[in-house]
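Sample pair:
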Amino acid sequence: MAANEWINGYLEAILDSGASAIEENKAGPGVNVRDRGHFNPTKYFVEEVVTGVDESDLHRTWIKVVATRNSRERSSRLENMCWRIWHLARKKKQLEWEDLQRLANRRWEREQGRKDVTEDMSEDLSEGEKGEVSAEAVSLDSPRKKFQRNSSNLEVWSDSNTEKKLYIILISLHGLVRGENMELGRDSDTGGQIKYVVELARALAKMPGVYRVDLFTRQVSSPEVDWSYGEPTEMLSTGADDADLGESSGAYIVRIPFGPRDKYLRKELLWPYIQEFVDGALAHILNMSKALGEQIGGGQPVWPYVIHGHYADAGDSAALLSGALNVPMVLTGHSLGRNKLEQLLKQGRQSKEDINSTYRIMRRIEAEELSLDAAELVITSTKQEIEEQWGLYDGFDVKLEKVLRARGRRGVNCHGRFMPRMAVIPPGMDFSNVVVQEDSAEGEGDLMALTNSEGSSPKAVPAIWSEVMRFLTNPHKPMILALSRPDPKKNITTLLKAFGECRPLRELANLTLIMGNRDDIDEMSGGNASVLITVLKLIDKYDLYGLVAFPKHHKQSDVPEIYRLAGKTKGVFINPAFIEPFGLTLIEAAAHGLPMVATKNGGPVDIHRALNNGLLVDPHDQQSIADALLKLVSEKNLWNECRRNGLRNIHLFSWPEHCRTYLTRVAACRMRHPQWKTDTPADELAADESLNDSLKDVLDMSLRLSIDGERTSLNETLDAAAAGNNSEVQDQVKRVMSKMKRSESGARDSDSDKKLTDTPSKYPMLRKRRKLIVIALDCYDDKGVPEKKMIQFIQEISKAIRSDQQIARHSGFALSTAMPMPELIEFLKSGNIKVNDFDALICSSGSELYYPGEDGKLCPDPDYASHIDYRWGLDGLKKTIWKLMNTPEGGKFGQSSNAIEEDVKSSNSHCLSYLIKDLSKAKRVDDMRQKLRMRGLRCHLMYCRNSTRMQVIPLLASRSQALRYLFVRWRLNVANMYVILGETGDTDYEEMISGTHKTLIMKGTVMKGSEELLRPTGSCLRDDIVPRDSPLVAYTKEGSKAEDIINTVRHLSAAGV
């Protein structure tokens, strides 16, 4: 019974602190010792029992309570509490079982995917080639030599590449980013990643051949943070020292406003505003590309060489920007969502739903999956990150990636399957300011100056030294230095226990903990505050006063001095984190001559392999940590050997070395960029006349719709425009009319609106617009046939826009639909609407784009198909989708299970369309996307037309991306677009709401959509895609007419200013 005393004690403590806080029906979220700033002892004690309980022990405690029951209320409450805690413990085991089931299902799905890929790709191989592929699929741990041989074929980036003028974009959205006095450790979002991306931008700008580097981040204009984070731009450095510096060369931080302007948001709350960032970043890129074209591009835009996203949120953004601009994307994950989810589930403290609610983990994982879909290259810091972390993702399979790479080298068809290339590039560091002094008495002199009470003029020393050493009784002892934010995963408390319980270590060394900056622990976030409180308690428990330093503040510029102080005392740097993805502080410490003790999990393994300057330990093994520290501190020969090894090999982690490898890898990517030229000569009208914009827009209004479908007379429009104007304007109108009559001479086909031509309109009317009204109402009946009321809505919207001359004279119209072009033409014709009444027609869910031609014919955009073609595997997708959709889960293929059939009339070269025969068998979009990713297939899959069709289009094509294409192609800013939707729609509906465009949602127009087929339970939340309260989204009431619509448009126009 003595073994049960700890349980008994905790139960009594729970009873004293208020047992009513225990929830009977769910396993609550993981315990934060500090809950919203207030300590919750009940949660703490319950957590201790639930995580450490053995059911037999808890049962014996209950037996004891029952046996000693008396009339006192306390015994009855204690008995009841035993059962309630037992219920929580069983719930924890249930979560663990569900996690095992989930992993088993995932392994089965992965193997099934590999099997399907092997079958599909073996069909076009000879027997000998099949044997090679099988061998590759089986022995995939061995091709390390093949990988190295392939890498050696890359042309290393040379310092002679000065003739190149590259424009590189880096993206790091969360946290507080600035070039000087970085507030690292201020919060969990402002950590090592911030320092890394700023230094990477500076280092790349210094490389030969790189002209400009832009680091995009969020603009924060909030009283919570320093004013500098609200500055639109900040220069980090000029260009390469030996290069001809241009007006815009160098490295810059570019802050894009998105989300609430006056709030600093943690990264989990930024997700709904990602598309808003994308639109703002796109505007900057287009302006900068044009400016660089004038400076160094001979008048042609200088497109970004690569767009590099850092972390999941930036990866999501980079994927969309890459698709909008058709330029390569690179990804660095830094830390990964699936890895975090696996660890949290293994702890058994939180359900998947609780984890998702706290960390928005499913939205983060989907962003990482999309990033893998779009990325040409994924940069990691370690090989472990590739196999053990990225290997958890649907979109990356180590085995399949090597098979596809081998087939690619032989020129064998991969049937549209792709895997991103992974490259291990160790993080870089700036060593220019590192001064490593040889062993001398100078260091001792500095320390003596601080401790000398007799000298009247002590030697000046860094202020941070004084701040650290005021904690220490004997600052001459070797310093064990740990530098990290007070995050539980950094494992600072285990280090402190190891130090406190090892007497020889305490006698030989001091411990210095640099744990970010703090003013008041009560004002810190729960996790950080919990760690600091534990640190203070442990210092008191082991009586470590005078042995442990933990200063409250330090500046980024103080960090080198802290390393130098540890080096002067012949100390050791330690990183005891449970998992360390990067280990940048280990490199910094080695550059200052400090040996290291580091976790064996993650990046430190590769750093130790390169530097050989210390020891690796199990972060969970307290004794192992103490032994390693004692060994390094006490054995001077070993200490000196580790110091020398670190200093000798540290050049491997220099920024020039990192950037050279980086540019070599990026240069090996498949380069792509927009193909069109923008030196479009002015048309005859613009060349001959300097016609003002308002008059041009009045001319364009002749194409607008009337309520009954009748065309307004061109002469009537011009006469009305000329009335009341001076004679000069009237003369201009007459000259315009004369030119237009001449250009219209010749016969026209009366049915031209039904015909397409391969000769595009070189200068579509769209390029003259300042605003674009995009009608994207998805009104279909239960058979997927467009409803006649859509015609009425189009006419009512047209009437509304025409009723405001100020808006109408600048505005054009576009129609965005899931219908293919021939069907759309027939539908509009049934309502007496001409297709060339629109400036652009986005068809087949964004896979086609048309403009009205100069002669009234519809012209496909000549560049759009190649623009969206990236990773489009038509044949592989067609075969795989048919198999997946017509085969039940765990079943075999058969005619009786067919859920779809191909809709040939609605398909085209970049759109696979299927009719849904049995909606109950239709798999949700997220489930299908997962299965396709596991088979190496990348696409944008959606259900549309009231859940009667499934359409599959290229990965980075969509109706929302088509709007960005119009921005890039014709400079019609997305922020000047008005997208008109119903209350529901196709499964791409959410994509159409977010962004800098204005969204007008007409109530009562679309009664049923396809959104229920978008995602299963447990996936990301709609609130993580669409902002809940956005000034850019407005609603009209049901049954609204033109007046209500135009009033809402005016309201949105004012909100967007």
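The first strand starts at residue 34 and ends at 35.
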